[in-house]
Structure formats: structure tokens, C-alpha cells
Records
---
Amino acid sequence: MTAQPSPSRRPGASALAAIGHPVPPLDDADASPHAFPDGGTWRTEIPSVEGPESLAAVLKEAGRLDVPVHRVSQGSGIWMLTDSEITEMVGACAEHKMELCLFTGPRGTWDIGGSTRTPSGGAGLRARGHDAVAGSVEDALRAAELGVRCLLVADEGVLWTLHRMRTRGLLPADTTLKVSALIGPVNPAAYAVYEQLGGDSLNVPSDLTPHHLTEIRKVSRAPMDMYVEAPDDLGGYVRMYEIAELIRRGAPLYLKFGLSGAAGIYPYGAHLRDHALATARERVRRGRLALDLLARHGADVGMSPLGARLPGKLRRFPTECS
């Protein structure tokens, strides 16, 4: 006999009601009307998986803790991996029905420009100058040739360039373009623009409120990525108890399990090996904690099947005018 899912409940609601503490009512009008093409409302992602060894640690820990993982992403960049390392990661992810997303090209903090280190942040972590755009294109072509079908982008111009390449057959048609948290849109107008520039999966900053997600969902159905625990350089926010509401408002949503209180690992190398492997395992454990919390609240329904990766039909700017 199949166990029936627990009825959905909000954290602490019955106990608060018992002592007469008011619980704000949910408004059905706030809920997102959108879903992934497979009907799911949420998927999972483990970020900062920097190479085959980190990926192996994630896969082993995910198996041990029974954590379903739809996507793993890397932050150091395609150029930091050898062909054999990329090929190994592609094969392992395919075997486990998992999407592999690798970061394209040079970014603001890693080139000779100093403006990103000023108090204002300058131009942010975008591709600075033609050569950085060209490097991102080179990365994308190399990764695609090796079987990678998800590319992580931190620049609007690179996003539009790769999207045009995809529409003209220079990249495989099933390539997905993921907008990085480094440039994530913070309002519905910007979100809609990123979708039309070619974004298939858009990372929003983790300090957006549930109401902000509802505003975005009124203008776009493009899948959203959100760190439910953010690394310190992205704010260090921990929003575990809000996950059910974030899904309700932001679907279709990728739940990203980052790690606060941990030193950065970009760009990754063997000198950071022990730290990278330990944090990779802990990110998976954070995922288990989040899924357990959802289950306790009866809010763990709606997960996409493993292997699901495409975003569905999205709106785009016309490319023939470019």
C-alpha cells in the first residue's frame, strides 16, 4: 500500500493558533501559475562542483543521503578544466541523469580591470572587452564539442551572443543558458529582458522577498534559480524555512544548496582539494536537511523527475535583426 503524502502545513501554524497568535493567511493569487514542461514545480542543484573529484564526492554523498540532484554547476570556468576532466564529468552526469553546467569565460574580477575591486563594484563581474566575450565563445564551443549542454553566463552580451549562436546551429539546439547569480535580475522588467536575451534558467539574488518572486512570475515563466543557502560572498542567507513558500511563489524553481561560513574556492586548483571536497559533501547534506524539512511540512510534492532539464518554450527577442 502506497503511503499518502502528509497534508501541507505551514511551519508552527497549529501551535501558534492554539495560543491565539495570528497566522497570516495565504493568498492563492500569490502562487505562481507556471511549472516545468514535465509538470514539476521544483528541481535541485548542487553548485561549486569544480571537477571530477568533487563531482564524485557529490554523487557518493547524494547516494548515501538519498538526495535527488537534477543539476550540478561549476564556478571556476571551463578554461580551468582539461578535455579529459570535462569528458569524465559529462559521462558521470549522464549516467546519473544529471545536468552538468559549466561556467563560460573570463569575468571582471579575473582580468586586469580594477573597477570591480572599488567600493562601487564598477561594471560587476561581466565580460570586459571583446577579448573576454571571445573567450566565453571559445569556452562554449569547446564545452559543447565535449558534450556539455548547459552553459553558465555572467554577462548580458555573452548571453545574447551564445543564444544567437544556438539559433544558427553553432551550438546544439538543446543547449541551455543559465544566468549566473553574479548578475541575477532583481526586478520583473530585468527578468523578462534576460529571458528574451536567451536565458533558460535565471539565478536571482537570495535576498529577494516572496512578493518579489510573485511580481516576476506575472511577467515571465522562465525557470528561476535561487540559493536557499547562499555562500558568504553572495550574502550568506539561509532561507530553509521559506522553501515551500519560495516554490509556491517562484515555480518553476531550482533550489540551490550553497554553503555559508565557508571560504571561497574560485578559481579551484589542487591546493584547495580538501576544502572543495568537504564543502561539496556538506552542500549535499544541506540539500538533505532542506528536503526533510519540506517532507515534514507535507510540501515535498511537485519535484521534477530526475533527468528533466529543458525549460520549455520561452519568449525571445528576434535574432534576425541582430
---
Amino acid sequence: MTGQLAFVESPVQLLNVLEWAHTQAPAPGAPRTAPMGAPHSADATPPLTVVVLSPTDPMSRGQLRRMAQLARDEGVTVHWQEARGGRGALVRTLRELARPLRSAERVIIGDPFSRYVQLLLTLFGPRHLTVVDDGTATMEFADQIGRGERLVRWHRKGNLGPRELVLAPVTSLARRRLAPTRGRTVEIFTSLPVEAPEGIEVTENSFAWTRTRFGPPRLISGADLVGTSLVETGVVDAGHYDRVVAELARAHGATRYFAHRRESAEKLHRIAVETGLQVVRPELPLELIARRGPVGRTIVSFPSTVVHTLPLALAGTGVKVAVCEIAPEWLRESASPRAQGFLSGVAGTAAHEVDRLTTRASTSTDRLGFG
């Protein structure tokens, strides 16, 4: 088997594949990666091909297009697959990817919870598998694999609906393919505090590629706020979220709001009108945007991956990162019972240099302070 094959569905996944590839680069004087399609020696790094399983939303597609160009600039072969492009797309994608999957020496995936990736994993049993971050879900993945549980995203309720029942055999087989065996190694490449089960290797993602290629950024006065899709995923009440964003903007002198790619246009318009914040839809993952600058001297985020990644990407720049913890009363009644504990864990395990912001009153968001 030859080559390394990565499947990505989001800009952050592709960024972390590039970070992983950077750690695999040969030392000075060692054989370099052979061009795709050319024979390579046993000592050279196997060639890497990235398959973009394109999403449908325009913002994700735009960011992925730009990330794909960055990957090509690094000498990576990128194949854009319209995996969700109407009728017949699924069958066509499976047919086109079956042979590369069977011949790949290593497969890299960004989202083990993805039904698409799980379906692809049923086609083969990879000898070497690497999982890179696609957000804080990596923490939940490691826990669920370690406990032998069904793979379920943390914000989803545990009950099986009709779709989940149909896909249950696929998910069950994919879970087995994501676990290490005598003939298969599994690696988690992460910037998050992951406790991997026995047999899974954890490799730290220090964002060395990002720091090498971009910045340091020019710092500007005031703060930047980082948006979240917790409202869109049904976890946090929209009214509470809007009030907290307004209070954070006043308390920290923020002028910009960096939108999550899944935030709705209606919500972002409301935030811009009610707070006066400039809403920015980033063209690249926030780690790259912040590293290239300009960036505020303080970045305030809700519990998300960036409270773990930005301190690494911005190390040595003087930028302070703060996380605003989610109070229980902000959660919607329909939120998963696991939501509060998971979000508290994300905030609580952030790097020690990250400031923690908490509400001082139990039922009001009028006052926010450092915890």
C-alpha cells in the first residue's frame, strides 16, 4: 500500500491535516516527500492526498476553497469531491474513492462522528488511522471509544431516531474500525486535553505550521469577540446569548465579532444592529486570521476549540484569550443532558493562561467578571 489519504469536511479539519503533515516533514538532509504519482523510496515520507468532501453551506465552501489553495502551496494534492451534490452523489463518491481507500497506507479523518466518513470506513480496514481535531468533539470521541459506547455528538440526545436506527450497523462497524487492533494503529492528533484509551497514541498539535507560515500579527486596541453556533445547534437560548454578547462587548471594549461559519444571517444581523459590533465572516479558520492579524489585544470566546488553539497559535504575541463560561440558565430545555458538563469541561481544561469569565448573578447576565 502506498500514500496517505485524508478526508476533510471543514476548513478546520484541513488546517489540522496541514499541521499534522508538518510534523511528518523530514529533518534537514532527509529524503523529502515524493510528488504524487511518482515512486518514492522507503525512507521518504509517503505522498499526501486530501479529499475534500464538500459541504453545502457557502461559508464553509469558501473557507475550504482558500484552505485547499494553501494546501496546494505546500505541495499537497487536493481533490475536491462534490459528495453532497444531488442525486447519485453518494454512490458516485463511494465508487470513486473505493480504490484509493484500499491502497492507502494511512487514512486521516477529521470527524469520526460524520456519517459520510463512517460509511467510507465500512469499505476498508485501514492499517494506520489518524484522527485530527474538528473542534471539541475530539474529547468526546476519545471518551466514547474508550468506554466502547455508540458514537454520538455531545449536543445530541441519546435516543435513536428512524435515521439513526437505519444507520446503526454502519456506525457500529465504523466504531470498530476507529479502534486500535493488532493489525491497526490509531493516532489522535490534537491540541485538546485528551485522555486516550489504551492502544491509541496521542500526538500534540502545537500549531507549529501556522506559527511558521503566518505572523506575528499587528495588535490593535480593544477586544475581539468570537461567535459560536450553540444557538443554531439548539443548546443555548438565543435571548440569553444576545444579552451576553452585548455585555461582553461593553465590558471589554470590543469592536469586532468573528462569526462562526454556521451562525445564521438573521442572528448576526441582530447582533450587529443591537450591539454596534462589526460582524466579520472570516475567510479562513480563526487561528490563521488571528495569526495574520490585525487582532485585538484580548480575544473573548465562549467554550469552544479556540480557547485551546488560539493560545498555541498566538504564543509569544502578547494576545490574551478569555473564555466566558455558559451558565445553566442559558441552556434551552431541549438541550442534551450532557451539554452543561461538556461545555464546563471545555472551559475548565483551557490553557492555564486563559482567563475565565463567569456571571456573578445566578439569573442575570448584567455583570460579568473574571472567575
---
Amino acid sequence: MLRDVTSKSARIAAVSASMLALLCSAAHAEPKVVSGPAADPGCMTPWASDTQFLQYPKKEGPYRIALANGYIANTWRIQMVKTAKAYAAQPEVKAKLKEFKVVSTGEDVPAQISAINNFIDAGYDAIVVNAQNPTAFGPVIKRAKEAGVVLVAFDNTLDTKDAINVNVDQKGLGVTWAEWLVKHLPNGGKILEVRGVAGTSVDTDRHNGIKETLAASGKKFDVTEVVGKWDDSVAQKATADAIATNGPFDGITAQGGDTGVVQAMMDAKHPFVPFGGETENGFRKLCAAHAGDGLMCSSAGTGPAQVAVAIKTAIAALEGQVIPQAVKLPTALVSHPDFKKDQDYYPDQSDNFFVGNSFPTCGINFTAQEIMGQTKENQ
């Protein structure tokens, strides 16, 4: 009987010690709010004047870092995954990594959350995520924080201050495109808006920027919305259907899949009109080629290399450097008539390539060969 009591007491003590260790680890892992600037202020610009600066406890490397991507079936996401692999393979980055894992889960939000949970359970040091839904990640954000895992969201960011967010002003991009249409359509008119992936923060923010800017112009705009999923083939079909049922249009704005949108216009013999769109190489080639035919473009966006900034930020956090809780990245912008060959677009490169895929202030630059030499598959 005494032996049973002793054994039970030992088990309780062991469990208690484990729980205490976990609690201490979690408390130790929480970042401190500190004074700025960031350790790398040229790269990691705070989102706003009131953005907090954080400093995580320093961990010894090399590190295990994972990319938990959601949607993969478009050019931007494919290039993003390839860029992440290319960045992790660069010698100075590779030296800091024990392991770099990539998983894409599609549009299934629970599947993406499950993937993040699996990375937490497997003991990864940091997880970089392009969130499929900005508000559904509350429990997994809490788990990452309690486990001492650095969580960095980019592009489609997370609605929390318990993770690091890295992004461009997505709403501002919508404003830029809409302002281009307002400028070139002084009397208002019929607009085709080709949206992205429903439910994502990027689609919502860009749409709100477009909608609010058109409304604030005081001009009468009649907007037809279609879903293009930032994909050329999907956007081309959606545009073709819209032209057939609601066209012609006086102006177009598209969040992505822009090459397909222009191709649909050409196939339908729709007159070229002012267009506010993203930074695909194919789109910019068409903008340059048909500038004299009425296709007046404003091409603005951010290259998929923002994933590299997110990984760089995660490593900086693990190294105990001071970083902003929300990092604001610059956008790439060129507008008619300033499209320059071999600078703003590349005739010899694939249409399915986003231009402006570098952040020089972060020391992040890629050749097309570096990126295209990678695969989109999970690793």
C-alpha cells in the first residue's frame, strides 16, 4: 500500500514538474514590448506611428521554420512558394536553418489551422503563414504563443497582436487602381471589378479600397463584380462571361489574373479601356504593346518575395532582435506611359511571373532562374 502511494506521489510530482516547466517556458517565451527602432529599420518599417516594437527571448540556432500556406492554385501563390524555397536555399539563410518545411492546404481553413497545430506539436521554432481567413485563427494563435513559437503572418495577415504581421497596404492598392479609373473616366461609367479569393483579407481590403474610392469621387460608377481568384484562366472566363452579359465596360480593375482579363477583352473584341491591375509580367507586356490602342494601365502590387521578408523577420525574432509587431512593405508601381522594357516588364520571361519580386532595403533580391528552379510542391 505504501509503495502504491509512493508511486502515485511520484507520478503526480512528475506531471506537476512537467506542467511547471511548460508554464515557465511559455512565460519565458513571450516577447517584451520595447522601444524602437527595429534592429533593421531599413527593412522592417513599422506599420503605423503607434505600432509596438517587440523583442523575443533569444534562441540558439539553427532553427526549424515552416511555411503554412493555404491557397496554391494561382501564379502568385506558386511563385511565392518557390520564392520561399529559393530564399531558404541562399547560403547565408541556409546556415541559420536546421529545417525548412512547406505545406499548402488549399482553401480549407480547418486544414490550414491543423497544419499549424501540427508544426507547433512537432516543436518548430517559427511558423510563417499566409492565412486563408484573418479571424478564424484565434485558438491556434494562442497555442503558438503558449508554446513559445514565433508566428509571422504575411499577405493575408492575422487579426491579432499576438502574432507578427508583414504586409503591404492592400487597401491602398485598391485605392490606387480606383484612382486611376476615376482619373481616366471623368464622367464615371461601367466598371468591371475582378476580385480575388473570397474570404481572404487581401480580397476584402482591396475591394474596400476600390469601392470607397469610386464612391468618394462623386461620379456615377456602375460596378459589376466577378470572382477571378487571382488566376489567369479563372479570371479570363469570368471576364468573358461578364462582357457577354453586362458589357461593354468603360474601365476594368483586377486584383490578379490580369493577363487573362486582357486576353478575354481581346477575344471578345472589346475595346481597350483604362485598367488598374497587378504586376504580372504578361499583363505589363500587354499594357506596353497596346498602350496606343487605349489600354492605359496602372500596374501596382507586391511581389511574392514578401514571404522572404516574413522568413527574415521570423529569424530576427528568434535571434532576439527588436522588430515591429506589424511590418509595412513598399509596393511596386508603374503607370502608362512609363512601362520600360527589361525594367518594368520582361519580353523574354514567362507571362506567369510577377515583376517587382524583390525588396532591396531588406537585401532580398532574386533572379528569375533562382525562383523558377524551385517547385511548388510541399516539402
---
Amino acid sequence: MVKLSVIVPYFNVRPFITEALRSLRANVTENDEIVFVDDCSTDGTPDAVAAFAPQFRCEVRQIRHEKNSSIGTARNTGLRAASGEYLTFLDGDDWLARDYLPALVAEIDKLGVDFIRTDQVRCTARARTVYRAPIGPRGTVLRPRDLILPDTRSTSVDYPYSWAGLFHRRLYEAGLMAFPEGLHTAEDRPWIWKLHREAESCAAVNQLGYYYRRGVQSSLTQIGDTRQLDFIAAFDQLLRETAEDPEADRLMPKAVRTYCAIITHHLGQIERFEPGVARQLKSMSAAALRRMPQDVLDDTLTSLDHRRAGQLVKLRRRQAPAEAAA
């Protein structure tokens, strides 16, 4: 069996792909494989990947979507094609430190867990900042469900980055690795929650070597169109699935509080949205608040700071178009 499958989804990242490819060359062995998923790029990125491919020591496959979809859909395509004992991801505009992946494989082999989580280096222009996974114990086998709470502080489910770690194949075979199809943002939120609710074991390790490029102009985080609003569908799914959990009463306050935090985050940056999208954000967020368990939402609002609570209370009272017409 292939030891490690590295899944690299990309869309129009030609200015950055060479750095990603060189870093992969310094990480993969002859026992690994790389699965590139081209989400219908139009800028020559696939040609750059094809030209570089002979430099790898392992098997390389490139799969092309005939129609542009989403990062989650591209990751799912890669997962279906991957055959490794372990699975990991690299976004096409990021890069890795030398020998980072072999170190992760050694760690997960030693610990025997379902998945491991790692810290990251965030890169904006020339700045480099270490960003830690919010998991205290390092190199210790943990129960993922125990890392969801408390709801009042950042926990492991608030660190949703799929590329920040390594995953045993048994998670994919158990149906725990698939991303929601078609979502352009927040697709990793239902994904990380499902992993933490249903996987049996995990660990955080002190291997620092993933370089996450921030502020790329083509990134969806920099674009204020309707794709940004996919976070609502993502969190609606998260709430539905959490409501079906045997410990729903215990976990739902965390899910609702996180949803509220993301809504207020977007409201705080509403000026970057196109005017029509800004209006959609307000109306869709108001409807989302009405769909939440109202008793849990009441408790959440009393525990938030005055500014965020005020925003949400005002939004919650906002009438839906059909209600206003009636």
C-alpha cells in the first residue's frame, strides 16, 4: 500500500504553484503518491504541474474537473482517487518545510491515532506568524469529542484547516472525510465537527512546517461576492448534524455560539461586500438566527459581549421579505 497520499486541489494558482511543487519534492518518498486536482484552471497551472511531475520520486496523478466547482468538491475528488494508508492536503498556493511530511508520518505511526493536528505558519506579504492549534497536550492520545468544548473559548473544532495534519485511511473508509459538495467557503466546518464527533482518537504534535499564504487577491477570503455566503449553508449543516448527536444538548451551545461569531465577523466586514450581497448577508443571517434552537440562542446572546449581542438581537428582529409583505 502507498504510505501517504498528498491531495493538492488547485484553481488558477500559477504564480504560486512552483513553490508548492518544490516543497513537495522535498517531502515525498518513493512510497508516497501525489493526487493533483485541477478545478478547471485557465491560467496554465496544469501545464506547470505536468512539466514538474517527472522530478517527483513517487507516483503522480493529475485529475481535471471539466467544470469549476469548489475546494471541497476538489478535495473529495482527490480523496476518491487516493490509495495511501495516510491522507493529507496541500492547497496549491501554500508550501511545506523540508521533511515536514515524513516527520508527520513518523508521529502518527508512533501514536497510532486516527488523525493528528499541527500548528501552521501564516504568511502575509513578508510577515511570518506562528498560529497554534488550540489543543493543549502535545504528543498525547486524546478523544476528539472531548476537544469540542467548552463553548466559551476557542477549541479544536475552531481550527478547521484540513491541511493542518494527517489522517488515517480508516476515517475515509468510515465516511468521515468527505466535504460538503459545492460550498465555496466554510466547507471545512461541518467536516471538522464530524471528525471530532465520530473519530475515536487524535493527537496534536509539535511539527511546524505548513506555510499558509494569506491575502492572495484571488482567494475567496478577499472577494466579496455571493460565494462568501456559503458559510450559512455550511453552518446549517453543522447544526443539523449536531442536533442528531446523542450529546446534542451538551454540544449545541458551542455550535450556536460559533455560528453567531461567524455571522458577526462577516457583519463587521460588511463594507467589503457588494451592496446586493451585503443585503443578502443581513437577510440570510436573520433567517439563520430564527432557525437556531431559540432557547440555546437566548443563552448565547446573554453570554456575548454587548456589541455582538446587540448586532444579533437587532438582526433577529429583522423581518423576512414574506413576513414584511404580509
